[in-house]
Amino acid sequence: MSKDETLGEALRRQGITRRGFLKFCAATASMMALPPSMVPAIAAALEKARRPSVIWLSFQECTGCIESLTRSHSPTVEGLIFDAISLDYQHTLQAAAGSAAEAARETAMEENYGKYILIVDGSIPLANPGYSTIAGISNLAMLEETAKGAAAIVSMGSCAAFGGIPKAKPNPTGAVSVGDIIKDKPIINVPGCPPIPVVITGVLAHFLIFGTIPELDALGRPMAYYGQSIHDRCYRRPFYDKGKFANTFDDEGAKKGWCLYKLGCKGPTTYNACATTKWNDGTSFPIEAGHPCLGCSEPDFWDGGGFYKAISTPTGDVAKAAIYAAGAGAAAGLALGAMNRARRDKAVGEHVKTTIDDLEKGD
Amino acid sequence: MSCLTDTNVLKVEAAASLTHNVQPLLHEIRHALARLLDDGGHTVIDLRSLPLAAEEVEQLLDTLGQGEVYARLHALGPTEIVETRYPGVWVVVHFNNDNEVIGKTIEICDIPDLLRSQQEDIRLGLGQLQSQLA
């Protein structure tokens, strides 16, 4: 598919009938949580959509986000959405490596300046740029450089959206989110550890269809997916309302599928689409498998005071331990920051490559 | 460990005591059917956007039952279109090429749009027939 070809033209060239296209649009509307009455509008917009350039940067992350996306098995919808974009840089997936890979990123930026979508997964270390580099370029420098020409940024996963596990106390790398650094671009946060695959394709589909970013909540998350709590959409909610709870993982309540609130479920304070979209090709979601929600799409979920403590229960010694850890982390962070700030600023300003010496000095 | 291997562990109580959304949905369908008669208005309900336990979806589909029409079409994977025992109420299930469900709707209309031949496809087919006869 060339960049000038519309999605409608590309689908017809592949032998996809109008009926098939309408089915694709119906599935896309369902995926995007849009009302079925929007299908004709979606069809009209997708028919004319042109292929946007996408640059995907991976920083301090575990690759779980890209695994989540590439292991989804809905080729009809997600494959077509991905066929409809030009993924010009993704260092895990692309064949090119080293300077050829970086050249692909620079070319995509130059050719599509002001129009490309930037997807970021992973947090950015500020304590020392050498903690995470790509082709010798610090994450901070690469983010700032690539963000300049982006039409919009998608922070994919809890690490990019909120700092995630790298930011968990005591945050040894000084990890921050994309939004902590970039202030002058629209940012769509798609948190989750990992996020649900259809959410990212839904965001891309929204951009293709409407040419805008979707409606966001106060934390920058698309309302279509993060507008309601897990608790409100949970099929076990009626048990909560009746006061029927599992107290252990093998008691009578657990066997009967009662509410997992007392086992630490963070569903009431977690906003995500797991309860309706579900995982593993729509098979189930953690609560349906008998495990409380960890709240992975919320900021600082890792430091929430214990996965198995009910959210209204005082966390006691856990909180005390967290305070000590935070104190130690803050002190360490300050010291590291003081040592490295000048060098980091210099590297950022001059786009200097980080060397092994820099890493050793940082220890 | 034994509790994890016990297949009854995760079994939930009867569907009737779950979200209680089946009855309101049936009333919504009733209203939509009346509207179809009044002004021809077409209604689509996306079952995947509603909190329903798997048993409740079964309960809903059992209640609607199966009527005179069953159609299976092949366009980007199969789609099953079934008219329920209530004429004008259709259950449409889209699958991808791996036979995984990618959409499940209840449509209240005289005929679901996907069953109609589409203008673009008719035009393409006419061209192909003309070429064959030339």
Can you offer a commentary on this structure?
The complex is a heterodimer of chains A (363) and B (134). Chain A has helices at 7-13, 18-31, 39-48, 64-70, 75-83, 98-111, 139-147, 157-162, 164-167, 178-181, 197-210, 223-226, 230-233, 237-241, 252-255, 274-277, 317-350, 356-362, and strands at residues 53-58, 86-90, 116-121, 124-125, 133-134, 137-138, 150-156, 175-176, 187-190. Chain A is of the alpha/beta class. Chain A has 3 domains: 1-51, no CATH class; 52-227 and 316-363, NADH:ubiquinone oxidoreductase-like, 20kDa subunit (Rossmann fold, 3-Layer(aba) Sandwich); 247-313, Cytochrome-c3 Hydrogenase, Chain A, domain 2 (Irregular). Chain A has a 5-stranded parallel beta sheet with strand order 2-1-3-7-9, sandwiched between helices. A two-stranded antiparallel sheet of chain A has the order 4-8. In chain A, α2 (18-31) packs across α3. Chain A is globular. Chain A starts with 6 loop residues before the first helix and ends with a helix. With 134 residues, chain B is of the alpha+beta class. Chain B has a 5-stranded antiparallel beta sheet. In chain B, β2 (70-74) and β3 (78-83) form a beta hairpin. In chain B, α2 crosses α3. Chain B has helices at 2-5, 22-39, 54-64, 119-133, and strands spanning 43-46, 70-74, 78-83, 89-95, 101-108. Chain B has a single domain, classed as Ribosomal Protein S8, Chain: A, domain 1, CATH 3.30.1370.140. The radius of gyration of chain B is 19 Å and the shape is globular. Classes of the chains: A alpha/beta (363), B alpha+beta (134). The interface between A and B is large, with 44 and 42 residues.
